[in-house]
Amino acid sequence: MNYQELANKIKQWGQELGFQKVGITDVDLSEHEVQLQRWLDAGYHGSMDWMARHGMMRARPQELHPGTIRVISVRMDYLPPEAQFASNLSDPTQAYISRYSLGRDYHKLIRNQLKKLGQRIEEEVGEYGYRPFVDSAPILERPLAQKAGLGWAGKHSLILDKEAGSWFFLGELLVDIPLPIDEPQTNQCGQCRACMTSCPTGAIVDEGVIDARLCISYLTIELDGVIPEELRSKIGNRIYGCDDCQLVCPWNRAADVTNEPSFHRRDIFNDADLIKLFQWNELQFLKNMEGSAIRRIGHIQWLRNISVALGNAPYEPAVSEALKARLGLDNNLDIHIKWALKEQKKKRDDIALNTARNAKLERLVRIIGKGLPRDA
């Protein structure tokens, strides 16, 4: 069999299935094992115990699917049209939701397309061993994508491509066919540290090293407990995920929007008023988030995240009223609501104090003005 010809066909089939780029690599990730263990030993995975539980299997795809000798790595762009970055982040009364989750959940869509790719290969070569993955198994997808030539690892740890930036999903098809492998891209971040310096919580502790315990995406998505109090004010109005490190990246300036309608912003987010979102009951949340990745965090965690954002919002009596209406629903939620109420009270008191100071200053000016000579 001409494996180079097969590899070329696989890349063509992948693009026909909606993947913007397809690369092939071997399964050797041994050079990443020390770094992975060091990251785990530092506790940077936070409460994501499954990362430590699977250990070095994440760096050994052949243990995940015995017989695997190649990984077909794919990229699917997700940046939606009219992403509205600035309007959402700059208005603290509006919820900011990571751009990847504005549309439908990507897991099933990409996995189905990968399965179709596997079946198309089977039609060509006959029965063989393959298995698709999309965030569904302990596998180091970014190092694999880098080795497969899909891009390089930026200092924010995401894969960057000079044509697409980092606004894309990754997926893998593990196969037992000895396909020719692709060359990795050269790292082109240079001296740029924009992603590191812009992180609201300082979660990028070193180049390519993320302390998940500080990352807003982890805090609002993976962490289902109490968000540390010292981090709440830094979350701002980000209620699901965070894009700050991508927003400042120079390589993202020319990124194309997605061709996949499933990733477009759903209409329910056209008005992302925090109070309105906070007033959804559980049935409304489940209905409105049907088919969304956001649904998996559940209604209580959704309310927890929004309560923090409401605490960070400008003072408004309606905010306190909305927060008080949710007290007693859940113990962990109450912790965040009570914090938010205190933050709102501080802002109300500050407004009252400033108003009193301004009134006093105005009186003082009038008094001084009356005492001045007419020709002064």
From TrEMBL:
<feature type="binding site">
    <location>
        <position position="189"/>
    </location>
    <ligand>
        <name>[4Fe-4S] cluster 1</name>
    </ligand>
</feature>
<feature type="binding site">
    <location>
        <position position="195"/>
    </location>
    <ligand>
        <name>[4Fe-4S] cluster 1</name>
    </ligand>
</feature>
<comment type="subunit">
    <text>Monomer.</text>
</comment>
<feature type="binding site">
    <location>
        <position position="159"/>
    </location>
    <ligand>
        <name>cob(II)alamin</name>
    </ligand>
</feature>
<comment type="similarity">
    <text>Belongs to the QueG family.</text>
</comment>
<feature type="binding site">
    <location>
        <position position="215"/>
    </location>
    <ligand>
        <name>[4Fe-4S] cluster 2</name>
    </ligand>
</feature>
<dbReference type="InterPro" id="IPR017896">
    <property type="entry name" value="4Fe4S_Fe-S-bd"/>
</dbReference>
<feature type="binding site">
    <location>
        <position position="217"/>
    </location>
    <ligand>
        <name>cob(II)alamin</name>
    </ligand>
</feature>
<feature type="binding site">
    <location>
        <position position="249"/>
    </location>
    <ligand>
        <name>[4Fe-4S] cluster 1</name>
    </ligand>
</feature>
<feature type="binding site">
    <location>
        <position position="242"/>
    </location>
    <ligand>
        <name>[4Fe-4S] cluster 2</name>
    </ligand>
</feature>
<feature type="domain" description="4Fe-4S ferredoxin-type">
    <location>
        <begin position="177"/>
        <end position="209"/>
    </location>
</feature>
<keyword id="KW-0963">Cytoplasm</keyword>
<feature type="binding site">
    <location>
        <position position="245"/>
    </location>
    <ligand>
        <name>[4Fe-4S] cluster 2</name>
    </ligand>
</feature>
<keyword id="KW-0671">Queuosine biosynthesis</keyword>
<comment type="function">
    <text>Catalyzes the conversion of epoxyqueuosine (oQ) to queuosine (Q), which is a hypermodified base found in the wobble positions of tRNA(Asp), tRNA(Asn), tRNA(His) and tRNA(Tyr).</text>
</comment>
<comment type="pathway">
    <text>tRNA modification; tRNA-queuosine biosynthesis.</text>
</comment>
<feature type="binding site">
    <location>
        <position position="199"/>
    </location>
    <ligand>
        <name>[4Fe-4S] cluster 2</name>
    </ligand>
</feature>
<dbReference type="InterPro" id="IPR017900">
    <property type="entry name" value="4Fe4S_Fe_S_CS"/>
</dbReference>
<feature type="binding site">
    <location>
        <begin position="242"/>
        <end position="243"/>
    </location>
    <ligand>
        <name>cob(II)alamin</name>
    </ligand>
</feature>
<feature type="active site" description="Proton donor">
    <location>
        <position position="135"/>
    </location>
</feature>
<dbReference type="Pfam" id="PF13484">
    <property type="entry name" value="Fer4_16"/>
</dbReference>
<keyword id="KW-0170">Cobalt</keyword>
<keyword id="KW-0819">tRNA processing</keyword>
<keyword id="KW-0846">Cobalamin</keyword>
<feature type="binding site">
    <location>
        <position position="170"/>
    </location>
    <ligand>
        <name>cob(II)alamin</name>
    </ligand>
</feature>
<dbReference type="InterPro" id="IPR013542">
    <property type="entry name" value="QueG_DUF1730"/>
</dbReference>
<feature type="binding site">
    <location>
        <position position="58"/>
    </location>
    <ligand>
        <name>cob(II)alamin</name>
    </ligand>
</feature>
<dbReference type="Pfam" id="PF08331">
    <property type="entry name" value="QueG_DUF1730"/>
</dbReference>
<dbReference type="InterPro" id="IPR004453">
    <property type="entry name" value="QueG"/>
</dbReference>
<feature type="binding site">
    <location>
        <position position="135"/>
    </location>
    <ligand>
        <name>cob(II)alamin</name>
    </ligand>
</feature>
<dbReference type="GO" id="GO:0052693">
    <property type="term" value="F:epoxyqueuosine reductase activity"/>
</dbReference>
<keyword id="KW-0408">Iron</keyword>
<keyword id="KW-0004">4Fe-4S</keyword>
<keyword id="KW-0479">Metal-binding</keyword>
<keyword id="KW-0560">Oxidoreductase</keyword>
<keyword id="KW-0411">Iron-sulfur</keyword>
<feature type="binding site">
    <location>
        <position position="192"/>
    </location>
    <ligand>
        <name>[4Fe-4S] cluster 1</name>
    </ligand>
</feature>
<protein>
    <recommendedName>
        <fullName>Epoxyqueuosine reductase</fullName>
        <ecNumber>1.17.99.6</ecNumber>
    </recommendedName>
</protein>
